[in-house]
Amino acid sequence: MKIDLPLYPVLNEELLELIDVNLENIEFKFHKKIKVKNRETISIEKIEVEDNLSSVIEINGPSVTWDVAYDNLIINQKLYIKNPKLLFGDYGLAESGAKIGIGFVWYSRESKQRGAKHISSFSSNDSVISEAFEVSFEPGQLRGNLHYEIILFIDEIDESRSSYLANEYGTVLGNIYSVELVLEGNSSSFPIVSIEDDNQPLWTLYCNWGDLSDLFEDSVRLRLNFNHKDYALLNVESKKYNDEFFKQIMINVVAIIIQTAFDKNEIELVEETEYFQPGTMGSLIKYYLETHQVKYDTPTDIFSSVMRSIWR
Which pTM does this prediction carry? Predict the structure, then answer.
């Protein structure tokens, strides 16, 4: 068995409690296009979550009118460290003349992406740390889950000292906060299945529901044909994966669902109904109508408005 032991002191629960870290006003937002007096403008919408200080936060579903595929994500957070001086010197983590940086590091396995952002830095002369920061992700940049941490690291070394303390630029001293954001859950992800059929096209859509209270996972399903020669274009694990091509398919899928609801004379009922149970066809259609601001006078209007929204 191999055990990796740090060669220098790192942040532990006892020291974390002593420096008294507080995280407040963690907010998740996105930009939404709206019309005001026949003019299109952009508003900042807040995404409501049940517990914004939990270690796992779900950000999905028609109830928040936000879609990871088509909307951006903005994370706003405030950080306070009441006793930062305790992080320096013989009983701390860094030399007295060094500077400690605060960083935002993130990764998304499903997106095959990772990144980092420098927030600020402080020294032993600072009595209290108060930082507000913002991190943004573009529409369609993320998939699945997003994990991020707020870390402390050596941002500036103390050239006059050399001891058992970390004193090399970039050395990570530990994290003061970490969270897993669930971006695609049962309430927001579209049911997609793979089939294997040499005689079928690359994709087909099953679309059949009896009532708006029917579960959408039982009523609509995008079928991707594994045996088709172009399947790699839709396989996120493939180097040939084409996100633009997948978006084009989803434009057709959303348009077909809305057109079906229109043909069933359900659009007006959806718009008049204030609340549908999450996971139902009513909630899905209402979500699409509000998110994409769909015009449905003609099939062309439906397709065009969905396309403008998805490609914005």
Answer: 0.60
